[in-house]
Amino acid sequence: MNARTLTADRTGGLIWIVFGAAVIYGSWAMDRLESLGIPPSTAPGVVPGLLGAFIIVFGLVLVLRRETVSTPAFDQADGGAPIEPAPTKSDFNAKRAALSAFLCLAYGGALLGSGIPYWLLTTAFLFLHIVLLDETSDVPARFNLRRAITAAILASAFATAVTLVFQYIFLVRLP
Amino acid sequence: MFDGLVMFVNGVAGYLTPTSLALAFGSTLLGILAGCMPGLSATLVITLLTTLTLKMQPNQAILVLVCAYNGAIYGGSRTAILLNIPGTAANAAACIDGYQLARQGQAGRAMGIATTGSVVGTLFGLVCLALFTPLLGEIALKFGAFEFFWLALLGVVLSGNVVAADPIKGWIAGFLGLLVAGVGQDGMYAYERFAFGNADLAGGFGLIPVLVGAFGFSEVLTVMSERFARPKIMEFGSAIPRIMDVLKYWRTIIRSGVIGVWIGILPGVGEDMAAWSSYATAKRLSKNPEEYGKGSIEGLMAAETGDNASVPGGIIPALALAIPGSAPCAVLLAAMIIHGVQAGPMLMVENPQFVFDVVAMVLFSTLGILFFGLFFIKPLLKITQIPRSLMMPLIFVLCVIGSYALSSRLFDVYTMLGFGALIFVMRRYGYPAAPFVLGIVLGDILDKNLRRGLVLSDGDILPFITRPLSALLALLVIYTFVTNVPSVHAVVTRWRKSLFAGIARRMGRA
Asked: Which of B43, B50, B95, B175 is best to mutate for the A interface (most A CBs within 10 A)?
């Protein structure tokens, strides 16, 4: 059993307990609409409150159990449960993930709708993402003129195509 | 029965137009290509296509989604066989023997087997879809609020149990999805739950932006966080299947078809479980179990028949009960709602033709799989050579514009980004995305039916456990929870093993 995974599970369990408690509090504080004469068992907070309680129970199991549970791939072939593929620790490159997330959040979460034309912003995002993150593990990637030219052509062509399709075919007013 | 046949013929005839045929075969090809690309799941493809088909006629939009779904589940077998990387989670079982066959210089034969298995599996599922959807719809007319509550809960609990390596984490993801579905005005009294005075939150989170985030943005981040190299494809010969391979394993094909459809029907379980269960059962009942894992034709046939049979299988409860059989079906169901198709028990009463239209759609996608699978192998594999660092930002741009285009508001983009980042982090710690998505789709059904049931019973919870069907569903939910207690699990596993051993002995004697 991996001690690090167990610690992560326990930390996660504590977070879920706090979250579940907050949900129960929020559900309890909801109006029970007694003035409308509705039965208390159908008040709006009933279902979220029950779900919050279940999340607390599951969180408690994560905190209290002594070992992690996993279904190794070879068990699956013998009839065990299949698992949704999750990246393994050795594959994970935190820097790549952080840079990609930063670019995506800056584009979609901060700059979109700020007044910069959609096609220009999209071209810039695609160009930067392709140039800064390539197939190597260098973060950011080393500058490569050929890749930069490919990125510029691909970014401008794709951004133009998306702009035209959504604006003139789907009649969407772009942000 | 005869009515069904007439409606099926009408359904096929309705799509025999150049536009519909082009859409059917084009989207099947697109699905196969996406399935070939590791990192592009079937759910992601359907979610993105849902946003791109919003302006289409409902029947044509659903045609595109069904064909792409079926194509993607098949397409993943290519990379499983040639690269030992499952294109989608459903093809993981095909890696075991498919890749071994490829290493023995039989990649073409393996791909032929995969194509045959997928086509036969889908056709078997298609027949079940046509036969069982009306039947299930008729039974479902007798369901009340009590039964629908348990069905919704069973979907989330089953999905959490089988999709996650750790069921507790699967259940947390599922219950979180149920909770997220409850944000905004509730379905009974229009009370704003967890809106904090925000007008956007009061409207609730849009289903499609959440799905695009969960399967699009989180997938982009997951793929970008991995080291990757351009895969080398090994040489292979003809992929035309041998008749003997099909005839020799007809029992395996039928058995895997039955397992695939059955697992497809189970709410929230999905194609990957269908493939693994078909594979495991074929291995247990095989005369040559020692060949499994070393390049068994039978094993590959079982896995590929099982996963594709579960595609129409998963559509059965989605149409008849509005309870999706898998994560891609959840997206399909959401797309139907957006296009004004009201799935559920009343569908067979109000719009029975639609069910047979879907059967026709599955038939067209199967023909597409057969055609592209046998004759377009090498061009299809070029897609695996496209660097993922080029592909992922393009997909992200589609995620953003697809979320925005639904109702032209930036809140949907923020929803997509928020849930995408959340699911990315959760997946890193072993919490799966599929139960979360099931929870979001089923949240409204669970909430409304629990409260409706309580109104009907005047606050009494007894009808939830005393009505025969409710009691059965409640027992299934409790069984799923309880069998995850280690000591109970050990007893059940021992019992199951002895049962399978008994069946294998009997079959050996026969």
From this structure: B175
